[in-house]
Specification:
There is one protein chain. The chain is globular, with a radius of gyration of 13 Å. α1 packs antiparallel against α2. By secondary structure, it is an alpha+beta fold. The chain has one domain: Nuclear Transport Factor 2, Chain: A (Roll), CATH 3.10.450. A five-stranded mixed β-sheet has the order 1-5-4-3-2. Helix content is about 25%, strand content about 40%. It contains three helices and five strands.
Length: about 120
């Protein structure tokens, strides 16, 4: 069941279904984006997803792995017109909602992750 919540979360991201994405992220969620050295608010994070998963980009889920049933890891890639972004995401769930998000985004080749359009 918990894996299904994360799969729904990522499928909604792929489809640009932002209402479904937001519905799966618990208010008060703890979010960490270590590649940017930031812990954005829920609202800031949801805005960032619009930038990452815009209609010009293609999101591909490579692998979903479950730990203790409530700890889920995802390996995904986002193909942008200019580069590929790779995500290692780690999620904790409670009562079917995401309560912790740790996403490590990188650009193969060592380029800096693009954060254009996102408040720092």
């Amino acid at each position: 069941m918990s894996v299904n919540a994360i799969e729904r979360f990522w499928r909604a991201r792929q489809a640009g279904d932002w209402d479904s994405v937001a519905a799966l992220v618990r208010p008060g969620v703890r979010i960490s984006l270590p590649h940017q050295g930031r812990e954005p608010s829920r609202e800031e994070y949801l805005s960032l997803l619009h930038f990452v998963h815009n209609p010009d980009n293609k999101t591909m889920i490579q692998r979903v792995i479950t730990g203790r049933g409530l700890d889920i890891a995802v390996h995904a890639q986002v193909q942008r017109p200019d580069t590929m972004l790779v995500c290692a995401g780690f999620y904790e769930l409670q009562e079917g909602l995401i309560e912790r998000i740790d996403e490590f985004w990188l650009v193969p080749g060592g380029e800096r992750f693009p954060s254009r359009g996102v408040a720092n």
